[in-house]
Amino acid sequence: MKPRLKPQDGLRILPSAMTVAAICFGLSAVKLCVDAINRDQAFQESRYTVAMAFLAVAAILDALDGRAARMLNATSKMGEEIDSLADAVNFGVAPAFIVYLAIFNGTGLAQVGWVVALLYAVCIVLRLARFNARLHGDKPAYEQQFFTGMPAPAGAIGAIGPLAAKLQFPGDWWTSPTAQWVVAGWMIGVSLLVVSAIPMRKIHTFAVPRQMAVPLLALLALFIAAAIQYGYLVILLIIAAYVIHIPFAVRSRAWLADHPEVWDDKPKQQRQARRAIRRAQHPNRRVVRRSAGRLGLRRPGGQ
Question: What protein family is recorded (predicted)?
Answer without folding.
Answer: Belongs to the CDP-alcohol phosphatidyltransferase class-I family.
